Amino acid sequence: MFSATWTRTPDSSQTSRNWKSCLVLWWHASDSHSECWVAKAWYQTRNAALSSLERSRASVLLENAYSYSLRNAEAAFCHASLFWTKQDVHSAVQKYQEAVHIDPSFSEAYEALVRCYLVMRRDREALSLARAASQHIRRPVFHYYLQGIALSQKPATTDKCRVLLEKAVKTDPSYQQAVIQLSKLYLREGAGENAVDL
């Protein structure tokens, strides 16, 4: 769509991207596709402290994305994240469910939806969603990780959670989310040496 220029800084041999010109080109990219509006909304929500003005700007950008394509999972996910920052968990759940419905292989939407259910104290729904996600996402590490998150809230299921997260780390040691979650669990249990070993 566009190209950004690479410049060398006079003081070092490292290359740096000319982000200002890149951003200007990106911002004026074709507005006839929903992906452009979603990207603009993500930029708005990620690079600001999310005051009410920035939230309203991001909402307008997302409405533009919806006007071009109602079947955009990323737009629904971004809209849900915006509701999450407003602490409107019920609306966030609806939008995350919409994102999962549009794209059943959208792993970030499953994870966010499980976390919303846990905040709402709907542990059974979180666990059943984590199990259902394995039918659409064929990555065992994500399956173990998501079920581990779903079981992480109750003290009675901590052992099962630890086993699942350990399986996730053993399956793919480079999967950072599982490593971080397992480290947090070890620290919560007082096994700091195990967390350091990870």
From TrEMBL:
Question: Looking at the keywords, is DNA repair present?
Answer: no
Q: Which Gene3D superfamilies match?
A: Tetratricopeptide repeat domain
Q: Which UniProt keywords apply?
A: TPR repeat
Note whether Protease occurs among the keywords: no
The record's section on InterPro entries has:
TPR-like_helical_dom_sf, TPR_rpt
Q: Where are the TPR repeats?
A: 73-106
Descriptive protein name:
Anaphase-promoting complex subunit 7
Species assigned in the record: Geodia barretti (Barrett's horny sponge)
